[in-house]
Specification:
Layout lengths: L12 H14 L4 E5 L2 E7 L5 H11 L3 E5 L1 H6 L8 E5 L4 H9 L9 E3 L2 H13 L5 E6 L11 E3 H11 L3 E11 L2 E10 L4 E8 L7 E8 L2 H5 L7 H14 L3 E6 L2 H4 L2 H11 L5 H8 L9 H10 L3 E5 L3 H9 L3 E6 L10 H11 L5 H11 L1
Parallel strand pairs: 1-7, 11-12, 11-13, 13-14
Antiparallel strand pairs: 1-2, 2-6, 3-4, 3-6, 4-5, 8-9, 9-10, 10-12
């Protein structure tokens, strides 16, 4: 019988309210966040129009602010480990774009500490996979000139990620023949934003024993189009081939594009990389820390399939630690190496040096030089 996610239950009103706000924010519409006697209007800056900015400026009466994450504030010249708020006496789209995005920008006003309700607005941006910068306006009551604004509590937004971490349900499954492998695709739904996640069972692994497993974050450019900037496509196809030839395994294909930043932000980062920034520097320019991904729901998928002991195929120590924290037994782990290219060696070196990935870049450089 098909299982239905608990997020569909009408009693779960707080979570439903947050999911609706995520959709509104992604669509560029303002939303309301409430905390006891406080009311905050929050809007994404990504597609903020001149017309809406003028209307919000009248509403704000000089009380608007721009929320920026710590990573972006560091790029603006501050030594910060926490998000901050910059006053906007006037909602000036040019200034907002400068503070949130421009490479040569420097902070131009005092930065104040964010409150819990303001932090919830940045949490919404992260959940919506948009640029991590939010326009906020404190209100006494909902504005009349913007009808039908959706609302959620600060607490519901702050608790959403934790409550949704492992709330994932099996939706559908079917055999899918691939070149060189017989597989079964098992689709789960849930987690943050009710996104679909896929477990691909390759061959006939013994779920009572140690199962080879790879957690593979979706990479449109590498997996589908064979981008030379990364080794994701090679890792994906190499894993399927390895499992098919060695008794089977499970590949989790996870909707976590761009280390959890979303596709649009990944492409923004690619534009910065084209100008000389490494992959992590580019993310920091946009306001992101090293990695926004979480893997608790991946462990929940494996548990629902009956997997308890795993051999992880990964270069990422954080994936190993996350699966162990989730209660599964990591019996062994093995590297997954793609082919080196002139375009991806710098990227792989950055992953080794900045995020501790277990990559032998020297050996990859030797292989690359031998191809010349």
């Amino acid at each position: 019988m098909t299982q239905h996610p608990s997020t569909r239950l009408p009693s779960n009103t707080d979570m439903v309210a947050v999911e609706r706000l995520i959709s509104e924010v992604r669509s560029g519409r303002p939303v309301l966040i409430r905390d006891k006697n406080q009311l905050l209007l929050a809007a994404s800056i990504e597609i903020l129009s001149e017309e809406l900015a003028k209307r919000l400026d009248l509403l704000a009466e000089g009380q608007a602010s721009l929320l920026l994450p710590a990573a972006r504030l560091r790029r603006l010249g501050l030594d910060r480990e926490a998000s901050g708020r910059v006053a906007l006496p006037k909602i000036d789209l040019n200034r907002i774009e400068t503070l949130a995005l421009r490479l040569d920008a420097r902070i131009d006003a005092p930065v104040m500490t964010v409150t819990a309700i303001e932090r919830a607005a940045l949490d919404l941006a992260a959940l919506a996979l948009i640029l991590p910068a939010m326009l906020i306006i404190p209100l006494a009551s909902p504005p009349r000139f913007i009808p039908d604004l959706l609302e959620a509590s600060q607490e519901a937004i702050s608790q959403y990620r934790r409550n949704r971490t492992t709330d994932i349900s099996l939706i559908s499954r079917a055999p899918v023949p691939l070149e060189g492998a017989m597989t079964e695709f098992v689709v789960f739904r849930g987690g943050e934003g009710l996104r679909d996640q896929v477990a691909i069972i390759i061959g006939k692994p013994d779920f009572n024993g140690v199962v080879p497993v790879r957690l593979h974050s979706a990479c449109l450019t590498g997996d589908l189009f064979g981008s030379l900037k990364c080794d994701c496509g090679d890792q994906l196809r190499g894993t399927v081939r390895f499992m098919a030839e060695n008794g089977g395994g499970v590949l989790l294909y996870l909707d976590q594009e761009g280390r959890g930043n979303g596709l649009s932000n990944k492409i923004r980062a690619y534009a910065l990389q084209a100008n000389g920034y490494d992959t992590y520097e580019a993310d920091e320019v946009l306001g992101f820390d090293l990695d926004q991904r979480r893997f608790d729901f991946a462990a929940a998928m494996l548990a629902q399939l009956g997997v308890q002991q795993v051999k992880l195929l990964t270069n990422n120590p954080e994936k190993i630690a996350a699966i162990i924290r989730a209660g599964l037994q990591v019996v062994a782990h093995e590297r997954v190496i793609g082919r080196p290219t002139a375009e991806n060696v710098h990227y792989l070196t950055s992953k080794r040096d900045r995020a501790g990935h277990l990559i032998d870049v020297d050996a990859m450089n030797t292989r690359l030089n031998s191809q010349d």
